What we know:
Residues 105-155 form the RNA polymerase sigma factor 70 region 4 type domain. By secondary structure, this protein is mainly α.
Amino acid sequence: MLRRTPRQEKVIADYVMKHKEQFYRLAYSYVHNQDDALDIVQDSVQKAIRAKTLKDETAIKSWFYKIVVNTSLDFLRRRQKMTVVDEFTMQQNLGSHMDHYEDIDLEHALNELSPDYRSVVVLRYFEDLKIEEVADVLGLNVNTVKTRLYKALKILKIQLEVENQGERVE
């Protein structure tokens, strides 16, 4: 059984600690809950330490992003199998503080996108990954990422224009 050396574990731990806010933000963009996002990052770190898939330390960025994205998607799949509670119960159980978004319209429009489109937008523009890195993280062809990004931005533009027109009318 191949085991990580202490040096490799330190490289992973140092990288994660240096970029922990970015990974939290990425997980939060999927689950919209602070505690769940923290759990996802923690699970991702554990998976990274146990994983034997990092062959080249220079690829750690896209490698760990891929782990966070996959852990987030796994969490969402598990959550879909759970019973949904009504809105009142959810509001009663929310913590006293929530993450603040400066642009609620953009947040709402992003949430309306399918996970395939939302992933490319979040990774490209919120996590500032290059298109090639997004493709590597999501396991897609670069042209597929470009196509999804183009379509997602087109959908976002339409959604934001509709919302802005609705505000002017009222």
